[in-house]
Amino acid sequence: MLLLLLLLLLLLLLLLLLLLLLLLLLLLLLLLLLLLLLPLLLLLLLLLLLLLLLLLLVVLLLLVLLPPPPPPPPPPRLLLLLLLLLPLLLLLLPLLLLLLLLLLLLLLLLLLLLLLLLLLLLLTTTSTTTTTTTSTTTTTTTTTTTTTTTTTITTTTTTTTTTPPPPPPPPPPPPFTVTKNVFTQWLLLQLIAHIGGHACFTNSPCFYGILTTTVHVHLRHIFLGHLS
Length: 228
Description:
By secondary structure, the protein is mostly helical. It has helices at residues 2-65, 77-126, 180-202, 207-227. The longest helix is centred in the N-terminal third of the chain and has 64 residues, at 2-65.
């Protein structure tokens, strides 16, 4: 197998070499032909140029030697009108084209509507729907049952006697409190008795001093009794 593969590869290489040789030979032949034909081609080109120059010279001679042509006749009125109307036509052409397009669109729409109507008619005529109605009868039986209920009402009377609570005991008398007014009066009486006693001792007999001392002693007994 390996030998066969090697042989095939060698054959392919030989074929490629042969093809390359053939291509080289062809190229050489073409080059030789070109080298041989080049002067001929150059001669042909020169001849063509000479012919063109001769033609130009003939045309120039004809223009110089021939008399001038007569003046052209004035253009007819139709041509003038056409020349005047050309810009108007150019302006109106797009409008006309638009109108034509609109007409075509309208025609197409009408055709489509007609086709749709025809299709609808065909569909309505071909499609026949059969509707079957089934009626069901339902019988309902009603049974009435009467129930008698007896209710007994018992009334119970309860008598409640309420005894009033005993009256609350009288509140105890409030304790004696020495207020500021009593204390200040006592101080004033002390001062008056002191001043009166002093006057009695200095000016005897003195009625005012005796009176104040007796009042003082009396009030002092009362005050001390209250305090106790």
